[in-house]
Amino acid sequence: MTPPSSTNGIGTETKPETREEQATRRQPPYHVVLLNDDDHTYEYVIEMLRAIFGYPPERGWQMAREVDTTGRVIVLTTTLEHAELKRDQIHAYGRDRRIPRCAGSMSAVVEPAVGG
Asked: How do the domains of the chain map onto residue ranges?
């Protein structure tokens, strides 16, 4: 059975409005992970995190301590493209002039955020 059509008063039929539901697809999250070494000071880490991420000195110190004690610290969780940009900015930040043997920037990697 076909339901009756309605008219809009001028003799033309109107069809029921259909809405297409669009599922918002989120990009999977990725971590930017700063890796520890012995060629950079806490001061360097704090300055670098402030310059690249805008973190205040207190948060930079906490992250510097974590990377020093555990060997790694997640500094940001974001989209893959943004994570790669931030990793590259860490790699390009430059050497720690406080340590003469320091040859360059700290290292960082991008990893999938498990369960994100």
From this structure: 22-112
